[in-house]
C-alpha cells in the first residue's frame, strides 16, 4: 500500500462541513430543550438588557415599547399544510411549544383548546409548534385525542427555536407558551404548563391593548 493510499481522506467539499455544522447546532438545541423538557415550571430574570420582568406566577412580560419582534415562523404543519405565523399579524397570537410525549403538554391541551374556542372570535389565533416527535402521525394522534383544532407547525428538530434571539422572551422548555401582540412582537412568555386561568391571565392584557 502506498503512502498516498494510507493518507486520511479529507472532506470532498465545504458543503459537507457546513452540513455537519448545521446538524451539530440542531442537536445542541435539541439537547438544551431536553434538559428543560416537561418541567413543571421555569424562571427567568429581567436583568441586563432583557427588558422583561417575571412575576411570581412564572409569567414574564415586556412593556409595549420594549418588545422584540417574533422571528420568521413558517413551514409545514402536522397536517402537511403550509403555514406562516406572519399571516396572522393584526391578531393576538398564542404560540404553544409542545410534544405528544410530554405529560404537562397533555395536561394543558384541552384547556388551551377551550380558551381558543372562547377567544378566536375576538381576534386571537392559537398556533402550536410540535417538536421532538419522531413523526407527524404521533402529533396528529395527540391532537385528535385532545380535541385540538388549531394548527401546529411540525418542527421535529427544534429548528424554529433557533430563530428566536437570545435575551428575548424565547421558548426554552417544553411546554413553553408565548403571546405575540398585534404588531408581531413578543409580549409575554411562560416556561411551564398552564391552567385555563393562567392562560387567560397571559392573553387578556395583550388583547386589551389598542
TrEMBL record:
<keyword id="KW-0812">Transmembrane</keyword>
<dbReference type="InterPro" id="IPR017937">
    <property type="entry name" value="Thioredoxin_CS"/>
</dbReference>
<dbReference type="InterPro" id="IPR013766">
    <property type="entry name" value="Thioredoxin_domain"/>
</dbReference>
<feature type="domain" description="Thioredoxin">
    <location>
        <begin position="64"/>
        <end position="208"/>
    </location>
</feature>
<dbReference type="InterPro" id="IPR036249">
    <property type="entry name" value="Thioredoxin-like_sf"/>
</dbReference>
<dbReference type="GO" id="GO:0017004">
    <property type="term" value="P:cytochrome complex assembly"/>
</dbReference>
<protein>
    <submittedName>
        <fullName>Redoxin domain-containing protein</fullName>
    </submittedName>
</protein>
<dbReference type="GO" id="GO:0016491">
    <property type="term" value="F:oxidoreductase activity"/>
</dbReference>
<dbReference type="Pfam" id="PF00578">
    <property type="entry name" value="AhpC-TSA"/>
</dbReference>
<keyword id="KW-1015">Disulfide bond</keyword>
<dbReference type="InterPro" id="IPR050553">
    <property type="entry name" value="Thioredoxin_ResA/DsbE_sf"/>
</dbReference>
<keyword id="KW-0201">Cytochrome c-type biogenesis</keyword>
<keyword id="KW-0735">Signal-anchor</keyword>
<dbReference type="InterPro" id="IPR000866">
    <property type="entry name" value="AhpC/TSA"/>
</dbReference>
<dbReference type="GO" id="GO:0030313">
    <property type="term" value="C:cell envelope"/>
</dbReference>
<keyword id="KW-0676">Redox-active center</keyword>
<dbReference type="GO" id="GO:0016209">
    <property type="term" value="F:antioxidant activity"/>
</dbReference>
Amino acid at each position: 500500500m502506498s503512502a498516498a493510499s494510507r493518507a486520511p481522506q479529507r472532506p470532498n467539499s465545504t458543503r459537507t462541513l457546513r452540513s455537519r455544522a448545521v446538524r451539530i447546532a440542531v442537536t445542541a438545541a435539541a439537547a438544551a430543550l431536553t434538559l428543560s423538557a416537561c418541567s413543571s415550571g421555569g424562571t427567568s430574570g429581567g436583568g441586563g438588557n432583557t427588558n422583561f420582568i417575571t412575576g411570581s406566577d412564572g409569567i414574564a412580560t415586556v412593556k409595549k415599547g420594549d418588545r422584540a419582534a417574533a422571528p420568521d415562523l413558517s413551514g409545514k404543519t402536522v397536517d402537511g399544510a403550509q403555514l406562516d405565523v406572519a399571516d396572522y399579524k393584526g391578531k393576538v397570537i398564542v404560540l404553544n411549544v409542545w410534544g405528544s410525549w410530554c405529560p404537562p403538554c397533555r395536561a394543558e391541551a384541552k384547556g388551551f383548546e377551550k380558551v381558543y374556542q372562547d377567544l378566536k372570535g375576538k381576534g386571537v389565533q392559537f398556533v402550536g409548534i410540535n417538536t421532538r416527535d419522531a413523526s407527524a402521525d404521533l402529533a396528529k394522534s395527540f391532537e385528535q385525542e385532545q380535541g385540538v383544532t388549531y394548527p401546529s407547525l411540525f418542527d421535529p428538530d427544534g429548528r424554529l427555536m433557533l430563530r428566536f434571539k437570545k435575551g428575548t422572551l424565547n421558548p426554552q422548555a417544553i411546554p413553553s407558551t408565548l403571546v405575540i401582540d398585534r404588531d408581531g412582537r413578543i409580549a409575554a412568555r411562560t416556561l411551564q404548563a398552564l391552567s385555563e386561568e393562567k392562560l387567560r391571565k397571559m392573553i387578556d392584557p395583550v388583547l386589551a391593548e389598542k
